[in-house]
Amino acid sequence: MTRKNVHLKIGEMKTDTGLIKNLEVSVGKLIDDSWEEPMGPTPMPEITTLRNWDLTLLNKYKPFYLPACDLCCLCTFGKCDLTGGKRGACGLEIGAQSSRIVLLACSIGAATHTAHARHMVDHLIEKYGRRYPLDVGGLNIKVEAPVTRLITGIKPEKLGDLEEVLDYCETQITHCLSAAHTGQEGNNLDFESKAFHAGRMDQIGMEIGDIAQISTLDFPKADPDAPLIELGIGTVDTSKPVIMAIGHNVIPSIGVIDYMKANNLGESLEVVGLCCTAFDITRNWKRGKIVGPISWQLRFIRGGFADVVILDEQCVRTDIFNEAERVKAPVIAASAKNCMGFKDRTDDPADEIVADLVSGKTPGVLILDPDKVGEVAVKVAQQVAPKRRNFTVLPELEEIKKLAKTCRHCNLCRRSCPQDLEISEALKDAAEGSIKKLTELYEYCIGCARCEQVCPVKLSIHSFIIKAGEKKMLEETNFCRCGRGAIQDIEIRNVGSPIVLGEIPGILAVVGCSNYPKGGKDVYDICREFANRRFIVVTSGCSAMSAGSYKNEEGQTIYEEFTGDFAAGGVLNVGSCVANSHIAGAAIKVANIFAKRPLRGNYEEIADYIHNRIGAVGLAWGAYSQKAASIAAGFWSLGVPVLVGPHGSKYRRMLLGREDKKENWEVYDARTGDKINVGPSPEHLFQTVETKEEAMVTIAKLCIRPNDTWKGRSIKLSHYIDLSKRFYGLIPQDIDKFVRTEADIPMTMKNDILEIIKEKGWKETVIPDPTLLPRLVRKKKEIK
Amino acid sequence: MSCEPWQCAEVSSTKKAMAITKPEVAISLIRRANRPILVVGSNAINRKLEGKLLIDYLIDFAKASKIPIVATAHMVGEFLKRGYKPAGFMSAMDIGNRLVDPEWQGIDGKGPHDLAVFVALPYYMQGLILSGLMHFATKLKTLTLDNMYHPHASWSFPNAGVGIWAENLKVMTSKFEGGQ
Q1: In B27-156, where do the E strands start and end?
Q2: Average of pLDDT values for A334-359?
Q3: Can you state the angle between helices A626-637 and A188-216, rounded to 10 degrees?
Q4: Are the beta carbons of A66 and B128 separated by less than 8 Å?
Q5: For chain A, how long is the longest CA-to-CA vector?
Q6: Which range marks the domain in which residue B62 is found?
Q7: Strands A507-510 and A616-620, how do they pair?
Q8: What are phi and psi of A57, to 5 degrees?
Q9: How many domains does chain B have?
């Protein structure tokens, strides 16, 4: 830690010169710097400090805008029509407006993670004190907060040290958000740069939130052998009272677990989680269970499994209290950010609240004391469960067949379905006695229930789909590796060289939400393909759950089939959304621990290193949220490419390179200062892909980096070519752009590739010591 | 036939695609174009019309009309499997990004395209790309061949059943075969 507030208060003091009463002295900050590393050039960057770096990347990967809306309606001058090159009343054109929306999304995401971290840190300080030491991996981790160290220049050691980091983030996010006000920024690239900055703050917010909870809540500490956790609706023992938590902030659920432990109730109830809070429940308590990703909220509630529903924050369906009321399950809202309109009962006696919920006097309450949440939830679950007896609103199959006959086949259900599912046809078959098509929809449905909102005869279509898929749902008994948290320093040392030289072909981070185009199986297939290819596969969030939701031929889930090491062929789940920071942290640690690049406040150099040398790719196959946008922005800023599935096109802006424009692919050779063309490596910074097959080919290609040795490049190209031949039916047509010397060509393909590249006029080139930063060129000469 | 967007919320603002009421209109637009291009997405192998996959209709149409195809996603492999070599292949975002560049010399390097015909991408994704082209590719016209109305195109067929869709594609193919 580097700075501390010093505040001296003297009630009464006698001195030789007189009596001093009520003296208060504040000296602002006291530097207490035990970190020996010298401060780098950009500690605690302001919103324009890293603008040049951002613009360097944005010049290489220019925005391609896909406006989701032609209008702007953010101020009272509007609505303004921005079609046909028209500017709005404020002067903004559609490109800048699109960037502005990106900035808004990233600022919302960063604010959400940072507010989550703030709540977490405040609560934990209250419980454990400011001097509680941070520990994310014992002796295995010396660089405990790589993102924070890199961006702020602060080395946090104690819980209290995190407060100043959060102060900084909150200030920066406010600046970012303010830039979206009418009449602030007008240039699209400046909006984009600020979106990158929001992404940087988001990475810090996530890191702070996770290291605070890892240090205090008995989570796995960078453990590759973190236990396997039961996953899936079929794992829930419904003969016991079931408490379900939805969201991302585990503190109220910890209240439940602590109360159960204190009262020896550990075996008497089921505590299950949905979405990221599930990960953090199970990181704390291995008996907890993971129901599934965010899209399964309605499945679980309408299926009648939950006796009490606890809502914390983020990604919670805002109509969940209506749904819970239908199945007579009381709701406890437990976050100040998500009060759900309930009366605040925080200060009421627990037994009074329990009585009101059990009797049905009130369907839900707001309780902002996590310990009280724990007591109330457990007592309510125990009393409600025998009455509810897993009451469900799912209709019987015969009822579905009967109701399906009332369908008018207007097709509004399909036209409102984000997946374009053929619901009307399935209902037609159901009316004729076959539920096969409805059953098939179960895998692809993302659980939004928009179909029900538009149905003119008010059919509970989503419930029909759940019921039709009930057998499959109850057979969902899988395993997910418990969120391990950070990557150990020793793991980084072991893989640093093969990653940077290209001999481990890449790091694939499969992260984010479950708005998948064709179900979660795609996530499993992609993870398994690359694990088998000896990539390092990292998972987090809902994607980590989907990856664990399918089995191989031997009946093993992916977490049983592959180790949890950060090593070639490992599949490791870092944890919940906030654990995404450890993925960025791992890349940063490769630059720092393996390559010995200075870390402290040295953002540009580390990002430049990562961009040019570490073949990492993020895949958010079902990204839906603003948080996913800000997480992506944090990776863009580090120069790490991010792919999204087709629904990700709705983020309405891509960052695309142009492989056909040779001039875009020059780097400096740090040894000589010469400009060297390194080809499109990596080709894009943010791209939507349409199918899992395209995703796999693209992932292999995006792992290529200018620094690859010939051996590493040869390995990477062999994967790119192999996947391209398998899914595209041909050798990649851009292969000439990735071959620098003949040694780069995989041996078994040499003749074929040589023929192709020579036809294209290929010429041998050198492998540089690549950098985009002229100041890193060691040989002094004029750089233009 | 309706001229509402296929996905109900995909409303446009002040500009809306002209509806194509007869396949002859689409034929005329393609014939009038100097440098048309047909972008084919991944639903080409997911949509079956009267027992025949959409991709097979599109191959027939491309052969008849001589319009060059750019395959997106992994569709190039599907075309090659059927013995048809598309003029090019790239991701949907890449082709969109090139089409907004007035300096791009087209898939064959012979000059900018003046008409981009889209078909078979996921509806929302195709809609967003069409929106990008509407705003940023001011000299380009766009046309969709799906049976789903795309408001952000310059011209689009209205929402229709697969029977009408198949018939439209067959008519378009036959007219080119007869007319050229």
Answers
A1: 36-40, 48-49, 52-53, 69-71, 88-89, 115-119, 141-144, 155-156
A2: 97
A3: 100
A4: yes
A5: 101
A6: 18-175
A7: parallel
A8: -70, -40
A9: 1
Residue B179 has a pLDDT of: 46
pLDDT grade for B10, boundaries at 50, 70 and 90: confident
Which of A647, A656, A728 shows the shortest C-beta gap to B77? A728
Residue in B91, B101, B128 nearest the CB of A68: B128
Average pLDDT, whole number, for chain A?
95
User: For the domain that residue B168 is a member of, what is the CATH number?
Assistant: 3.40.50.1220
Q: Is the pLDDT of residue A170 over 80?
A: yes
Could you tell me if residue B148 is inside a domain? yes
How confident is the model over A4-32, as a mean pLDDT?
68
Domain assignment present for residue B10? The answer is no
B22 CB-contact burial (10 Å; exposed 0-12 / middle 13-18 / buried 19+): exposed
Instruction: Print the domain residue range for A13.
Output: 1-31
When divided into structural domains, chain A yields a total of: 5
pLDDT score at A650:
97
Cα separation, A80 vs A564, whole angstroms: 52
Confidence band for A238, pLDDT divided at 50, 70 and 90: very high
Measured between CB atoms, does B2 come within 8 Å of chain A?
no
Chain B interface test: which of A60, A656, A690 (most B C-beta within 10 Å): A690
Helix (H, G, I), strand (E, B) or coil at A100: helix
Is residue A729 within 8 Å of residue B73, measured between CB atoms?
A: no
Question: Tokens 């999204």 belong to which residue?
Answer: A644
Contact A64 B97 (CB under 8 A): yes
| pLDDT at residue A782, rounded to an integer | 58
- Report whether B54 contacts B61 (CB < 8 A): no
Q: Is residue B105 one of the residues assigned to a domain?
A: yes
- The span from the CA of A532 to the CA of B16, in Å, is 48
Of chain B, the percentage scoring pLDDT greater than 70 comes to 97
pLDDT, one tens digit per residue, over A520-555 is 999 999 999 999 999 999 999 999 999 999 999 999
Q: Is residue A445 domain-shared with residue A544, that is, in the same domain?
A: no
Residue in A234, A229, A228, A230 with CA at minimum distance from that of residue A476: A234
